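REQUEST FORM: STRUCTURE PREDICTION
Request ID: SP-0412
Submitted by: Lab K.M.
Chain count: 1
Length (residues): 103
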Amino acid sequence: MAYSLRLHAERVIKYLRNYAGLSRHTRIKLFANLHSDLRINGDYYRNDPERRLAPGSSCFWYSILIQDDEGDGRIRQFSFIVDDQHAVYGVLLVEFVQIDVGP
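STATUS: Completed
RESULT:
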């Protein structure tokens, strides 16, 4: 099932847009990957019990690794918390993002 993604305005969209050191190109690549993978393959991630924050939780984790080729060249891991309580309506809520920077 293809889902509609809703990204939290402050904790995800604003945070990623204002994150210093991330090139515009990489930001676009991140949003494109997020939408093309999580939106299309959401059931795969939702149905993996190892991804749940806790047994019975409506939240699961999702992550993407991207190298910033047009910026500092570093690899970043973007880890998201996604709430699927509205999945029956075709909506996944991306509630939080954390960025870890590699060497």
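NOTES: The longest helix spans residues 24-46.
Reviewed by: T.R.
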